[in-house]
Every structure is written in structure tokens, then in C-alpha cells.
Structure prediction request, 94 residues.
Amino acid sequence: MTDKELDILFEEAFENAQLIPQTSVPIDQQLILYGLYKQATSDTSDRYFFRPDSQNIRSAFKLNAWMQVNHLSAVEAKKQYIEIINNLMKERNL
Prediction:
């Protein structure tokens, strides 16, 4: 699969993710998806930038989710994201 083909599938998966009711996805899986998306789309200059705000606990969980997948390349993160979204779509008959 070429990089362009992977990017197309990744964009399609992101669009499909919007069709999945958020409340139907366990929070731990939402965090995994967040981490994979950030790893797949962020350049190395903005990795792990933590913004202190009124939702520090939420931000900390999101940062941790991203750090859990920091060993993955952007390509591998995209592949895993696509796989999870496709499985969620199948499970929900979407």
C-alpha cells in the first residue's frame, strides 16, 4: 500500500469515526484512538505539548494515551487507527 492510499484510508476512517456514537465507545478505547490519531497526524515538533487548563485531569489522560503509542511510526499509528474504526463500524453495523 502506498502512502497516498494509506492517507486516503485514514481520512475515510476519521470520517467514519464521526458516525459512531461516542457514548457507545468505552472511554479507554476513545483514549487509544486519540493517541493513535495524534501520533499519526502530529509532527515531531509538537509532541507531548501539555497545556495547563481547567481540565488538567482530562488533558493528562489524553497526554498519557499519546505517550503510550509514541513508539509507533505515523504509518503504523494510521494502520491501527483504521483497524479499530473499521472494527467499531462492523460491531455497530454502520
In short: The two ends are 25 Å apart (CA to CA).
